[in-house]
Amino acid sequence: MDKRAKRPGRPTKYNDELQALADTYIFKYKELGDVIPSRVGLCCFLGISKSTSFEWANTYPAFSATIDAIEAMQENVALNRGLDGTFSSTIVKLVLANHGYSDKQELAHTSPDGSMSPTRIEIVAPSLKNDDAKG
Length: 135
Description:
It contains 6 helices and no strands. The protein is an all-alpha fold.
């Protein structure tokens, strides 16, 4: 059953033509003036709010797939433009953080599989013999 029939309130603008238009954004984002594809770029292109795009992504599988494709393209473009130096490394870091990348370092005191445990180092003072103590 179509989810559109159950929704109260104003009718949605979502339809097959709008979905086709959304799909074209993935390939024409540069022609539209966007440097990198994004959800907000898609929203501007379609004339919808970001909240509407989230709602549609949760309601319509085709729109959700379009958002997934835009995010994959965004990750690819940011990664490649960061590597070739076209984009600022700060901007690339911010964009890629949204895709799960990070630059933090974790120091493990044990191995991930537990095969190596921490080493305990003990410093013991030499014992004094009775003869040495008198001296």
